[in-house]
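Design a sequence for this backbone.
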């Protein structure tokens, strides 16, 4: 083995010769394991390949009994080899038989061997098999040896992936999709509905040359590729549509930092040193990144994997002399495994209508950008690239998380109508934006909007919202690689306040943790992050973060009223402690003679049910309350808000929820403390009717819900609605949904 670590280039060249040489694929594989065993001074070298049904079959071995070849089979997950395959990670053991997953296969004669080193054979992030070396003598393999065996496995993937040994259709590649309509179910990551033809995003470039002829030439090629890629990113950042501030820019700046990362570049150089071509070295390092990042519990790092893939693919395309982006001559739906932010921006915005990802997460850079650009995106759509052919007609329903592939003419027509109706409705809502949301009996309902990105602010005028009832400040932190400095925070808050003009803005202090990961604060893995160290809990344990944020808010709001709201307050003492920090910052600014806001309002979010049992005490101290039903209801029902499976299990119009909200609204009214509801619930017409019936007069909702809700409100009689809701609640033992729907139908209320 030590020889391999010191002479990897020679071994790679030898393997390359064997693989490109004469003989059947099986004969060449047999020779490959002999060469590896010799070079690694190992008594055994074996290759197991994946077959249909997640089976690993022993395909070649130097050292194990020849009769076991093509006989010994293990399931993925079975034995040590199966463990390497399911985890996609190397496994190194001094004494294999003492590992709990060890299984003994007598036909192999394996009992003679003690130490074991297995590495996955990976191509395009799919495990194609496992390469194993074993030694008679118990010995510990070094990190260099493990690294070297992985490089060998990568070169071997060329032979395995060629399809000569195992029919690719057998393990799920190729095998054309049926020509039938199909509905794929994923997770909604950006709202909206769109239709177009499928473009399969060719992120990757197939690496065909693995072994370098001349190391210096390869290094030169890599340097040139890096320079070209960086120049391209600089050009992208300076595009007029990216602007001088805002999240597009933050995201690209963060992305650029990766492109300039020395550590990354150095690791690719090291891989070239070991004998790989520039493109194989890029891919090799990307495989390492995948391994490291998938093994980490840090969601931020996992999400940045797509950014790094984006950059690696850019390098590979440059090395292959190909350009980025594909021409879209017509409305297109991009289908990809995953995407980085720059890849999304490579496409012509005029034709880019929707995106389908097999992976992705709501907080990935591509999702944040898609939302800001108004492009529907469905993620976690398993098998999308296998099921969708280029040119297929595809409908992306970002509202329900569905993707309809090759829709029948009927379905296409229905969706086509939906898309056209929506466009018409949006135009109609825009025309009504100056009409006040007043009920027929004269009750004014305030409709504020929820926002978090600079890009959202145009919606203020477009919707005619009364203000911003929830500004999620964590978005700025989520899209930048480093802690946004005081100045950057102040600048954003100033821009928000300027866009709002006379309309009030409620800034929620950082709600990070849970699923909202930020790069500069690594969080320990928790069993239940939504109920873990997040939001105000982090702020009180790390008060510097909150202090700086409040400092930036006070500076930005000079001369205007400032509304600050704390997330996830669980007991009154937390509110007091957080408010004391605000007070200190206020006094500090006064002491320094700074220009001060004209007024200060400090409020709490009710997102944790326990707070409702301390409400009277809280309302003596808080200037306002906002009911955050997104989190509140997941704790109320013990029902994870991000679980698609139980999303519709409990009805938010059940008496339990409405009685709870009734109690809260009544307490606020009694204490004369303004109360808002800022969860998604408030944006749905039937839900909003119930809330208005309970006496709520202020809702903060997503901008797209404002137009429709204004229309609903203008048809409501709040007094009759109150009677209906109260009477129904008095003897209800189930959801009020049907009652409200019937009422709306009978009274011609648009819902
Ligand atoms: C809520 O929990 O209801 C809320 C508005 O906050 P977020 O959705 O940002 O957690
Ligand atoms: Mg919340």
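Sequence:
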């Amino acid at each position: 083995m030590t020889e391999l670590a010191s002479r990897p280039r020679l071994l790679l060249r030898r393997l390359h010769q064997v693989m490109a040489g004469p003989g059947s694929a099986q004969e060449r594989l047999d020779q490959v394991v002999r060469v590896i065993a010799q070079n690694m001074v190992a008594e055994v070298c074996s290759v197991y390949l994946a077959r249909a049904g997640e089976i690993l079959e022993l395909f070649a071995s130097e050292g194990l009994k020849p009769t076991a070849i093509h006989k010994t089979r293990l399931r993925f997950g079975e034995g040590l080899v199966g463990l390497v395959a399911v985890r996609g990670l190397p496994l190194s053991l001094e004494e294999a038989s003492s590992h709990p997953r060890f299984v003994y296969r007598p036909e192999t004669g394996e009992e003679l061997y003690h130490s074991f080193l297995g590495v996955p054979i990976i191509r395009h992030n799919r495990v194609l098999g496992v390469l194993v070396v074993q030694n008679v003598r118990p010995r510990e393999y070094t990190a260099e040896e493990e690294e070297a065996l992985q490089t060998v496995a990568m070169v071997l993937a060329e032979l395995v992936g060629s399809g000569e040994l195992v029919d690719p259709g057998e393990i799920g590649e190729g095998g054309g999709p049926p020509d039938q309509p199909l509905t794929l179910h994923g997770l909604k990551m950006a709202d909206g509905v769109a239709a177009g033809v499928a473009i399969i995003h060719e992120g990757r470039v197939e690496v065909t040359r693995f072994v370098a002829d001349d190391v210096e030439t390869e290094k030169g090629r890599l340097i040139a590729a890096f320079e070209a890629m960086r120049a391209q990113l600089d050009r992208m950042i300076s595009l007029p549509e990216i602007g001088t501030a805002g999240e597009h820019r933050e995201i690209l700046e963060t992305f650029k930092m990766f492109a300039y990362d020395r550590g990354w570049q150095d690791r690719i150089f090291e891989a070239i040193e070991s004998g790989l071509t520039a493109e194989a070295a890029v891919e090799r390092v990307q495989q390492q990144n995948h391994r490291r990042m998938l093994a980490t519990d840090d969601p931020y790092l996992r999400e940045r994997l797509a950014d790094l893939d984006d950059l690696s693919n850019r390098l590979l395309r440059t090395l292959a002399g190909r350009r980025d982006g594909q021409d879209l001559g017509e409305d297109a739906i991009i289908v990809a495994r995953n995407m980085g932010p720059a890849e999304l921006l490579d496409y012509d915005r005029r034709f880019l209508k929707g995106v389908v990802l097999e992976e992705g997460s709501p907080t990935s850079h591509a999702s944040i950008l898609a939302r800001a650009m108004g492009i529907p995106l469905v993620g976690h759509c398993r098998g999308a690239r296998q099921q969708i052919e280029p040119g297929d007609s595809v409908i992306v329903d970002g509202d329900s998380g569905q993707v309809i592939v090759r829709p029948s003419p009927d379905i296409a027509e229905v969706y086509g109508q939906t898309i056209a109706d929506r466009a018409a409705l949006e135009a109609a809502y825009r025309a009504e934006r100056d009409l006040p949301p007043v009920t027929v009996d004269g009750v004014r309902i305030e409709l504020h909007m929820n926002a978090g990105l600079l890009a959202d602010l145009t919606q203020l005028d477009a919707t005619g919202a009364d203000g911003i009832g929830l500004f999620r400040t964590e978005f700025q932190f989520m899209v930048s690689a480093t802690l946004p400095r005081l100045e950057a925070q102040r600048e954003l808050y100033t821009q928000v306040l300027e866009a709002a003009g006379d309309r009030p803005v409620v800034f929620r202090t950082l709600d990070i943790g849970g699923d909202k990961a930020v790069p500069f604060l690594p969080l320990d893995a928790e069993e239940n992050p939504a109920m873990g160290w997040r939001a105000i809990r982090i702020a009180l344990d790390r008060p510097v973060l909150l202090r700086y944020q409040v400092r930036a808010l006070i500076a930005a709001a000079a001369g205007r009223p400032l509304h600050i709201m704390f997330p996830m307050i669980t007991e009154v003492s937390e509110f007091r402690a957080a408010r004391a920090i605000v007070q200190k910052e206020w006094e500090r600014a006064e002491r320094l003679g700074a220009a001060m806001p004209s007024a200060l309002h400090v409020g709490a979010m009710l997102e944790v049910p326990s707070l409702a049992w301390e409400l009277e005490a809280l309302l003596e101290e808080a200037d306002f309350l906002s009911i955050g039903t997104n989190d509140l209801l997941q704790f109320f029902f013990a029902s994870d808000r991000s679980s698609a499976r139980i999303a519709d299990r409990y009805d938010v119009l059940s008496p339990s929820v409405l009685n709870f909200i009734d109690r809260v609204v009544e307490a606020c009214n009694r204490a004369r403390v303004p109360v808002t509801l800022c969860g998604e619930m408030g944006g749905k017409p039937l839900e909003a009717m119930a809330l208005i019936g309970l006496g709520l007069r202020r809702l903060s909702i997503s901008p797209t819900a404002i137009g429709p809700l204004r229309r609903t409100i203008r048809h409501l009689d709040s007094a009759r609605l109150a009677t209906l809701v109260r009477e129904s609640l008095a003897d209800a033992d189930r959801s009020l949904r049907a009652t409200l729907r019937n009422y709306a139908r009978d009274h011609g209320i648009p819902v």
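Residues 215-237 form the longest helix (23 residues).
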